[in-house]
Amino acid sequence: MKPTPAMNTDPAREPSTSWGTFAHGRILGAWAPLLLFAATIASAQQPPLPQKAADPKPNFELDPLRAPAPAAPARTAPPKTGTVATTPQPKNEILLNFQGAQLSDVLNYLSEAAGFVIVQEVPVTGTVNIVSRQPIGPEEAVDLLNTVLVEKGFVAIRNNRILKIVNRKDAQKRDLPVQTGSDPEKIPRKDEMVTQILPVRFGDAAKLVENLKPLMPDTATISSNEGSNAILMTDTQTNIRRIAEIIKAIDTSVASISTIKVYPLQFANAKELATVVTQLFQTSSSSSRSSRDRGGGGGFPFPFPGGDRGGDRGSSSGGDSEARQAGSRVIAVADDQSNSLIVSAPEDVIPSITDIVTRIDTSITAVTETRIFPLKHADAVELATILTSLYAET
Q1: pTM value?
Q2: What is the pLDDT at residue 12?
């Protein structure tokens, strides 16, 4: 009989081990659901992991709605140092916007904003209303200032950065800019005071000055120089441009009276026809002048410009004016090589000369007609002799 394995017969150890194992298992089994529930709640309340805290940075750079947030201070930074209305811009532009402001305050602001040195030789009074929503440059600011000053009876004379404010009546004898030219397109429409020299090409400068004086303001001056046949005028450039337009219309009217036309001739002789035309229209001009001197309006039946046109017939020299002489002058020259007639005459006389040339320049053979008359009873030789004797002169 085999011996059975020895069993632990220690009464002190066996009950302790068995009870501990049993008690531990019962405790775990009872608290397991509670521990699982507590772990679930703890995981729900646990803060986000550290790696997720770095996500806002890339999201911030890629999110178009949140990206402009850090750029906002950069856009609002310039107004903290100054505004467009009070400080010059990088291009020296200023903003003029005044409502009922004193003219002296406007000058002070212009000096501060644009850097001009203002010299007031006379007290400047009055208010100014200027509305300019867009910045303007210093040159435009000075032009705008002159526009305001001229209405108040003042004018600004500029010398680089210096602006000297004087009375408009006294500005004529000051150091004003001197301009030359009579083309109105090259004279700007500004209220800057200048002295303009206007050359006159065809008219009489002295007579033009007499006609233009009633059209000028009292603060302007105008005179003529007979040696150079030019007009000297001191006023604003806007007024000078207007006078230049009038002078241009009057001065070119004399030059545009005459025109030149060439008539190629086929049958007539150019030299003989030139003599006829010259004598014919010289007689017309002489008779027209004689008729004007007598106060009559007769003359050659053609509508020549030398006839009565109305207006002032008098003249300080007692003769015709240059425009009237040009309006009645007809010159005809023959070119033998091409058998052509060259005519210089007023434009309204050209149709009459054309009609004369057309009528004269015809073929003689074109008006000769040949016919045969059969005779029944008369003798042909005797009848030919009789007809020849009757029309011998033709």
Answers
A1: 0.52
A2: 46
